[in-house]
Automatic annotation (TrEMBL):
This is Transposase IS4-like domain-containing protein. GO terms for molecular function: DNA binding; transposase activity. PANTHER family: TRANSPOSASE INSL FOR INSERTION SEQUENCE ELEMENT IS186A-RELATED (PTHR33258). The chain crosses the membrane at residues 90-109. The keyword Ubl conjugation does not apply. Keywords: Membrane, Transmembrane, Transmembrane helix. It comes from termite gut metagenome. SUPFAM superfamilies: Ribonuclease H-like. Pfam families: DDE_Tnp_1. Residues 29-101 form the Transposase IS4-like domain. InterPro entries: RNaseH-like_sf, Transposase_11.
């Protein structure tokens, strides 16, 4: 196994309801993240990826989740007004520009 990969196992769900709903093989990759000093376990059906690719994919996915969390907290985006990629893009860019302008003007104003 590559460095930081603790295990890479393939199995199947054996509980009746789970195996009925998902009959395909599943894979569990356990990975040690040196930066965070913690273990992660990823469950996937991606059999064609290396264990490191699985870990990297989930790490990147988590960054997307953190970005949307930041959007909700700082830009107050509770829902998207449109459902096309362009509509979401325009709304996000507009909110980011507005946020940057607020921060900029707050820095210009004297505190107190």
């Amino acid at each position: 196994l590559p460095e930081n990969v603790l295990s890479d196992a393939i199995g199947e769900l054996t509980v009746y309801k789970s195996s009925k709903d998902y009959p395909s093989l599943i894979r569990k990759v356990c990975y040690w993240d040196k930066e965070q000093k913690r273990k992660f376990a990823f469950v996937t059906n991606a059999m064609d990826l290396s264990p490191l690719q699985v870990a990297e994919l989930y790490k990147n996915r988590w960054q997307v989740e953190l970005f949307f969390k930041w959007l909700k907290q700082h830009l107050k985006i509770k829902q998207f007004w449109g459902d096309t990629e362009n509509a979401v893009r325009i709304q996000v860019y507009s909110a980011i520009i507005a946020y940057c302008l607020v921060v900029f003007f707050c820095l210009l104003l004297p505190s107190g």
